[in-house]
Specification:
By secondary structure, this protein is mostly helical. It contains 25 helices and no strands.
């Protein structure tokens, strides 16, 4: 047990209480459980999007990578996430919000058909199980440091708390707990970065940082790791457009303009918090020089370097950020399993209450799978990049073209997804270590070529289904809001 024990326990208890209370907001409706009746205003949506971007990967993983590999290796994570929010806000948020979707795979169903929906559902389930694992790993590390529990026990406790309130309130639990959790993280990281700069001195901190960890060679010179750094950033920037948890919040916004502006707001603050985390990673080189495991840099600084209240906010800020992302991703996977796989393919005769129950139940196998992955591969920063490589390779091209190119069709979408994903798997095994990064960047190009060529070759023979962009669930949402 450490001095952070009770703050962490109280924080988790408050988060659990808020999450369980949101059960009352669902009112027995699967649509309210999934997208909050499509009624959320700008500040709430912006905060919720920020909470999904600022997770254990962008904080704990960022600090660890910055400390071990240099500023750009760590900062590329929040930078990529911020760019993705700007891209989603500019090109996708408005059109997708206007469609009144319940899940992102539903867009592929309405735009391209059931085969494409199946492919996207399976790939995104794999991707976001890995994403949840990265955040559960971060939760477990913080809990283990604060409470003295071993990593596995902390992982089980953290996962149990998150799955409990996810099942209770759905997206309401995510948004309500986000609002509490992310502001703790925001204040904690800004205050902590300011404190180490003010008390230790910027010049003193930087004098202890090896030149190769700070200069621009990491993003400008091939032999210094520029290719994998850029590949990771681009993968996050574009692959995150397929983020189920981001898009669920876009769908919940009360208007297209609200969704778009919420993305911009979250993108700016993601850069702010990410910059502060990277500064702490650099400061750790001189302030905690004996640390062997870079994942322990931030927890150790929270206990031994920062003032108690500041360290407490960093601790629970990382914990809350990781919990919020795991909660949001767990929710959308359970809903995709229920709606886009079980309901679509097994065709059970579920009414709305039955769909709500099924969505809740599916959170349990999702949590188990992610927990097992987190126990086997406890690497928060790396797990995020791996997760978005999967959807970046095959799904991003059909998504953007499906929104903005009327001639996109289902044959092209299937070709793009299959070829891009296959290329990513092959590239993983055949790409030499010296060319690391190309295994991330080339598969989306393969996907684009296959998608465009197939659409052109089948033009006129395969329906484009672009009229599906005008479909909506507006009547359902109007009824939900009126309740």
């Amino acid at each position: 047990m450490t001095q952070m024990f009770w703050p962490v326990v109280i924080f988790m208890a408050i988060s659990l209480s808020i999450g369980l209370y949101t059960y009352t907001q669902v009112r027995g409706s699967s649509r309210r459980f999934t997208v909050c009746g499509k009624s959320m205003p700008f500040f709430i949506i912006g905060t919720a999007l920020l909470a999904q971007a600022v997770d254990g990967n962008a904080t704990l993983g960022n600090v660890a990578l910055t400390h071990s590999s240099g500023f750009w290796a760590g900062f590329m994570i929040p930078l990529g996430l911020a760019v993705s929010l700007f891209v989603v806000g500019r090109y996708l948020a408005g059109p997708l919000n206007r469609m009144n979707l319940l899940t992102l795979p539903e867009f592929f169903y309405r735009r391209y058909g059931v085969r494409t929906e199946l492919l996207v559902s399976v790939l995104t389930i794999v991707c976001f199980t890995v994403l949840i694992a990265g955040n559960l790993s971060a939760v477990a590390w913080i809990l283990s440091v604060a409470t003295g529990l071993n990593y596995t026990t902390a992982l089980i406790v953290g996962t149990a708390v998150i799955v409990a309130y996810t099942m209770a309130g759905g997206l309401y639990s995510a948004i309500w707990t986000d609002f509490f959790q992310i502001h703790v993280a925001l204040i904690g990281f800004i205050a902590s970065a300011g404190y180490v700069i003010y008390t230790k001195g910027w010049d003193t901190i930087m004098s202890a940082v090896p030149v190769e960890k700070l200069d621009l060679s990491a993003i400008t010179q091939f032999n210094a790791g520029a290719l994998p750094n850029w590949a990771a950033m681009i993968s996050l920037a574009l692959g995150n457009a397929m983020a189920l948890d981001f898009m669920e919040r876009v769908f919940a916004a009360k208007s297209p303009e609200t969704a778009r502006n919420g993305c911009y707001y979250a993108g700016v603050l993601t850069i702010v918090i990410g910059s502060c985390a990277s500064i702490l990673g650099l400061a750790g080189i001189s302030l905690v020089p004996t640390i062997v495991d870079p994942r322990m840099v931030l927890p150790t600084m929270g206990v031994s370097v920062l003032p108690y209240w500041m360290g407490m906010m960093v601790f629970i800020g990382v914990l809350g950020a990781s919990m919020s992302t795991a909660n949001g991703a767990m929710l959308v996977i359970s809903v995709v399993l229920a709606r886009n796989l079980i309901q679509r393919w097994l065709k059970p005769n579920f009414d709305d209450a039955g769909m709500l129950s099924l969505s809740r139940i599916m959170a349990i196998p999702t949590a188990i799978a992610a927990g097992v992955a987190a126990s086997i591969w406890p690497e928060p920063g790396i797990l995020l990049v791996v997760a978005f490589d999967i959807v970046f390779a095959g799904c991003v091209v059909p998504l953007f073209f499906g929104v903005h190119w009327p001639k996109a069709n289902s044959a092209g979408a299937v070709a793009g997804i299959v070829c891009g994903t296959t290329a990513r798997v092959v590239a993983h095994f055949v790409t030499p270590a010296a060319w690391a990064g190309l295994d991330t960047l080339l598969p989306p190009v393969v996907s684009l070529i296959a998608f465009y060529a197939t659409c052109r070759l089948t033009e006129g023979r395969v329906p484009a289904r672009h009229e599906a962009l005008a479909e909506s669930n507006a009547d359902h949402f109007a009824a939900e809001v009126a309740q």
